[in-house]
Each structure stands twice: as C-alpha cells, then as structure tokens.
Write a structure and sequence with these properties.
By secondary structure, the chain is mainly alpha-helical. It folds into two domains: 83 residues, Rna Polymerase Sigma Factor, Chain: A (Orthogonal Bundle); 63 residues, Winged helix-like DNA-binding domain superfamily/Winged helix DNA-binding domain (Arc Repressor Mutant, subunit A, Orthogonal Bundle). The protein is 71% helix and 0% strand. It is built from six helices and no strands. The chain starts with a helix and ends in a 7-residue tail after the last helix.
Length: 146
C-alpha cells in the first residue's frame, strides 16, 4: 500500500513538474504584467502554482493552465492594493483592475464572458474597462529618445 502511494506521489510530482516547466514562463510573464515587479510576480506565481499542485489530483479533465491562471487572478485581486501603481512600463497608468482586464483579454486571450465570470462582473463592465484601459495605453505619449 505504501509503495503504491509513494509511486502515485512520484507520478503526481513528475506530472506537475512537466506542467510547471511548460507553463511557468507564460504564467510568470502574466504575473509580471499584473504586478510590474519581478519579486512580486514570482511570489504571486509561486502561490498560484502551490495552490494548483494542492488541487492536482482533483483537476480531472480540467485544464491545469486555466486553474493556475485563475488562481493567479484571484490572488492578484485579493492583493491588488499592493499594486496601486505598476512601476514603469506601458501599464503604469492603469489601475489594478484595468491591468487585470487588459492582461486577461489581450495577453491571455480570455473571452469577455470568461473574464467577466472570473472577476464577478457583468460582461458590459469588462468591455468598458478594457476599452478604457486600451485608450489609456494608446494615449500615452511616446518615451523621449535621448
């Protein structure tokens, strides 16, 4: 019995390691776009991956990337007050909510309906936030070249 359990744990760990190795870079990029800080992005990613690993056996049929991205989103929302200002970059003038919607919709390619469901907002609100965020990013004056 202990041997089967140990073998199952090793298989689970290998499967998760393969997943994290393949999806970790993209998830880290997403976290970095949200937080604007490499250390904060790594923390957010580690927390999301830890939660995903804890649920690994219960994911049956679910997309582990979707689960990890959803956890990343939830953790960002709960700690968004830390990220009032995204230091530097194109997204610096956006609020955390605008950054989240923009990253989900444009970087991750999440449909408006899915983003709305994930954030607990009406689809129209997500559409409006995304439009406002895009307008803000587009209105940013080009950086001075020295």
């Amino acid at each position: 019995m202990k041997q089967r359990q140990a073998a199952r744990e090793r298989r689970r760990a290998r499967e998760f390691e393969v997943f994290a190795g393949g999806a970790g870079g993209r998830l880290l990029h997403t976290a970095l776009l949200l937080t604007g800080e490499p250390a904060a992005a790594e923390r957010l990613l580690v927390e999301a991956l830890a939660h995903t690993y804890a649920r690994w056996d219960r994911l049956r049929g679910e997309d582990p990337y979707e689960c990890a991205r959803q956890e990343l989103t939830v953790r960002f929302v709960h700690s968004a007050r830390r990220y009032r200002r995204c230091p530097g970059g194109v997204l610096e003038r956006l609020s955390p909510q605008e950054r989240l919607v923009l990253v989900l919709r444009l970087h991750e390619g999440v449909a408006e309906e899915q983003a709305a469901a994930a954030l607990g907002l009406p689809v129209e609100r997500v559409r409006a936030i995304c439009a406002r965020a895009v307008a803000t990013v587009r209105s940013r004056p080009p950086a001075a070249v020295s």
